[in-house]
Amino acid sequence: MTATATLATARRVLGQLRGDPRTIALLLFVPCLLMTLLYWVFAKQPETFDRIGLQLLGIFPFITMFLVTSVAMLRERTSGTLERLLTTPVGKGDLLVGYALAFGVAALAQAALASGLALGVLGLDPGGSVALVLLLAIADAVLGMALGLLVSAFAKTEFQAVQFLPAFVLPQILLCGLIAPRDEMAGALRAISNALPMTYAVEAMTEHSAGLDLLVVAACAAAALALGAVTLRRRSA
Predict the structure, then answer these.
(1) Is the CB of residue 61 less than 8 Å from the CB of residue 141?
(2) CB 166: neighbour CB atoms within 10 A?
(3) 23-49 burial: b if 16+ Cβ within 10 Å, else e
(4) DSSP string for residues in 21-85
(5) pLDDT, position 40
(6) Which DSSP category does 211 fall into?
(7) Distance separating alpha carbons of residues 144 and 33, to the nearest angstrom
(8) CB–CB of 2/95 below 8 Å?
(9) What number is the average pLDDT over the span 90-111?
(10) What span, in angstroms and rounded, lies between the C-alpha atoms of 163 and 10?
């Protein structure tokens, strides 16, 4: 892995993103639209909006980054771009880290825009440090990106990559504490939720934890990128 190859990959991916207005709209504006819709739904219940809004401020970026990165990486493989790149000095680590850097920039912009809208315009009460909420939103988006890159290795078509969203993400939403408190779940479900990364992403956001939960989110993102480099295939068979 070299810095030159990694940065070249990141520049290439950012260039592709700039030329794809639909993906930019999905990344930047869909979380904002969903937060606005949530605000209108709970217009007469501001306390509920504050509670659920903070959790979804982490979940919405997670979902969009997961979807976009899983499809983008698979497209590299099915188009033959990945196979051609790996015949050059660019290694799997360069490719994955380059993608992580490029989409990390997108995650930063996405989280900043969604957080600014929610906390500034919509009046979401952060219940703590605004800077910490922004940091956690960015961390959740980066986690979604890393997991998207990981699961793309197990799909053969873009349609299959999209199918990972309900199969991989929705169970985490059900068990992360958004729908029901985790301490009220059956023991087996609570044990499963303890192993799911979104659980810690949501808890970090709602409990304003800059400690263990945030470290777990960062560790899961790093582990997903490492596993993605190991499982990455040159092309879809």
Answers:
(1) yes
(2) 10
(3) bbebbbebbbebbeebbeeeeeeeeeb
(4) HHHHHHHHTHHHHHHHHHHHHTTT-HHHHHHHHHHHHHHHHHHHHHHHHHHHHHHHHHTTHHHHH
(5) 94
(6) S
(7) 19
(8) no
(9) 81
(10) 26
Tokens of 148: 């998207």
Please answer whether residues 235 and 155 qualify as being in contact, where contact means their C-beta atoms are separated by less than 8 angstroms.
no
**Residue with structure tokens 């500034």?**
120
Cβ neighbourhood burial of 207 (10 Å; 0-12, 13-18, 19+): middle
Which amino acid would we find at residue 131?
A
Q: Yes or no: say if 187 and 170 are a contact pair by the CB < 8 Å rule.
A: no
Which carries the bigger pLDDT value, residue 75 or residue 195?
A: 195
> For residue 54, what are the CA distances in angstroms to 21, 51, 66, 87?
28, 6, 19, 45
Hey, what are 37's tokens? 């819709």
Q: Which of 30-34, 178-182, 229-233 has the lowest mean pLDDT?
A: 229-233
Query: What would the two tokens of residue 43 be?
Result: 């217009």
